[in-house]
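Deviations from the work plan: none for this task. Representative record:
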Amino acid sequence: MTDKKEIACREVVEVATDYLEGELTDPLLSLLEEHLPECDGCTEYLEQLRHTVRALRKLPEARPSDSANLDELKRIFRAWAESSRSD
Amino acid sequence: MADCQLIEALLGHEEWAFVELVECHHESLLRLARVYVPTGHLAEEAVQETWVAVVNGIARFEGRSSLKTWIFRILMNRARSLGRHEGRYVSFATAFDPAHDHGEPAVDPDRFIREEGAALEGHWNQPPTSWGADPETELLNQEVLNVIEDVITGLPPNQKEVITLRDIEGWSAREVCNILEISETNQRVLLHRARSRVRAALEQYMSPSENRGRR
């Protein structure tokens, strides 16, 4: 690894998550940072991965789950509170 | 609010503390439950059982994890149990070892130059193309959300857990490793596989003519 001079695009896509997570270390990190300015394909790939993560993060607000049946849950809580007071 | 204040209030039977916990976590619990059970109805059942277990167990909570982690662990156990009962969920906790993971590549190998010895061997043959001027808006349309949800539904369960907690729920890597009891390396490998599958499906949707049938 130490005499490795460059990183291939095929390797970039496999370390992309480590890179975005800030967990990529040298020598791969330096090789990747040298590679990216010269490679439109890998730059676009990373951009697509960033878009993917942002789209995933928006799922909860775009598709909210049913909200809690708060009355039912409060009933459960009160029953528990009542029974533990009487213990 | 700090865990200790909430716990003290719960132990004092103060309903506001319970309502605060429900409002904070209920929807996330429902989404995580769907990783293990096939229907929304069963997910609700798992979450309701979780809240019952929380109030019944709060006096015995020892604070060795955060309150949130403890609640989500209860949910995972309940939902896994319900899922097993439904034949949906198969235990895999010990099945994944990244050292022996020769899983699918993030991108179809045919999209890279494969001639051995060629100067550009391993470089893009068919590079990804731009998703347009405003992909953020495009990615929010209902059809795209369906694409994402379909991919996630089809993921192996361990990938599904990690991408749900990390990317959909926004948990930190440390929190995810903690609740799933996996190493940071495992967590990243699983996240990488899952994100790669979602990106590939989105690529097909966003640039269909150029990458049809490819990853």
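The two ends of chain B are 44 Å apart (CA to CA).
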